[in-house]
Amino acid sequence: MNFEKEGIVSVWYSTTDYSSIPDSYFEEDEQGLDRWAKNFEITEYNPENMETNGCEQGLAPIRDIVAPCSWSYSYGEAIIKKIEKLGDKQASWLILVFDFEYRAKKTHIFEDEYVHFVGCFPYDMEAGNLE
Fold first, then answer.
1. Which residues, at least 6 apart from 96, have a Cβ–Cβ distance to it below 8 Å?
2. For the whole model, what pTM was predicted?
3. What CA–CA distance (Å, rounded) separates 98 from 121?
4. What single DSSP character describes residue 35?
5. What Pfam families is this protein classified in (predicted)?
6. Which of 13, 17, 32, 97 can pair with 91 through a Cys bridge, CB separation 3.0 to 4.6 Å?
7. For the chain, give me the number of helices (H) and strands (E)?
8. What is the secondary structure of 69-91 as a DSSP string?
């Protein structure tokens, strides 16, 4: 499925210690897809549009992880609220894919063993950071 959509960022978060996730989760196969993408039935995405941020060990307040991300002023508060609604006040790391609208209602996949899908949010390249 192709989920490309300009002006939208799709977000996943984890509460699993980054250091305890096997390297194989991030290794690409012949098609250039890693296990994360396959788990969510993502058949293609532009790796240049992907951003990750988090802490090496343990958990941090979601705001601390979202704030340094590109253009976070335009979507950061919405992500914080949604993750808190999902029951977490802290996270270990985030995956953001810009110009991408992942549709979990189509794939019926909302999480794998390491990350939970947060949602899709409009973003603005004119926006600064949340910090």
1. 9, 10, 11, 50, 51, 52, 53, 69, 70
2. 0.95
3. 9
4. H
5. DUF4284
6. 13
7. 4, 6
8. STTGGGTHHHHHHHHHHTT-SEE
Residue 56: DSSP 8-state: S
The answer to whether the beta carbons of residues 91 and 59 sit under 8 Å apart is yes
The pLDDT of residue 113? 96
Q: Among candidates 6, 100, 109, 111, which has minimal Cα distance to 44? A: 100
Region 20-34 average pLDDT: 88
Q: Pairing mode, if any, of strands 93-100 and 50-54?
A: antiparallel
Residue 30: what pLDDT? 87
Q: Which residue has the tokens 């096997």?
A: 22
- Which pLDDT score is estimated for 127? 94
- Residue 41: beta bridge partners? none
